[in-house]
Amino acid sequence: MDNGFFRCDLVGIAADGRKVYGTVSDKSDPGNRATVKFLCESALSLAMNADQLPGGQQRGGVLTPATGLGDVLVKRLRNAGMHLETSDVIT
């Protein structure tokens, strides 16, 4: 598990054809340690940073991690050693 690593390259395409590129990577096994890191940091975001979440504490429902936890989760993951990067939108 300590010798694992992963890199995920992402492409987002808007309805008008604009593209944005992103990368998520870490020096840990993606099937175990990275998953635990995602889950724990998400839970800590909800428990310790609820007042900073997108939409505030009153927002609820079925949300993606990006819409429900936003930059709070990104900051926590980066502080935990994960690399998350995006590039400028390319038309």
Q: Would you mind describing this structure in some detail?
A:
The structure is a single chain. With 91 residues, the chain is α+β, with helices and mostly antiparallel strands. It has helices spanning 33-48, 65-79; strands at 6-13, 19-26, 83-86. Strands 1-2-3 form a three-stranded antiparallel β-sheet. The radius of gyration is 15 Å and the shape is flat. The N and C termini lie far apart (39 Å). The model has no long low-confidence stretch (mean pLDDT 90).
Describe the secondary-structure layout.
Elements: E1 6-13, E2 19-26, H1 33-48, H2 65-79, E3 83-86
Antiparallel strand pairs: 1-2, 2-3
Q: What order do the SSEs take from the amino end to the carboxyl end, as H and E?
A: EEHHE
Q: Can you count the beta strands?
A: 3
What class do helices, strands and sheet pairing give? alpha+beta
The geometry reads as: flat
> Strands of the biggest beta sheet: in what spatial order?
1-2-3
Compute the average pLDDT.
90
Please outline the major beta sheet: 3 strands, antiparallel
Which blocks of ≥5 consecutive residues have pLDDT under 50? none
Helix percentage range: 25-40%
How many helices in DSSP terms? 2
Rg on CA atoms, Å: 15 Å
* Terminus-to-terminus distance: 39 Å
Strand content: 15-25%
Short characterization:
The chain has helices at residues 33-48, 65-79; strands at 6-13, 19-26, 83-86. By secondary structure, it is an alpha+beta fold.
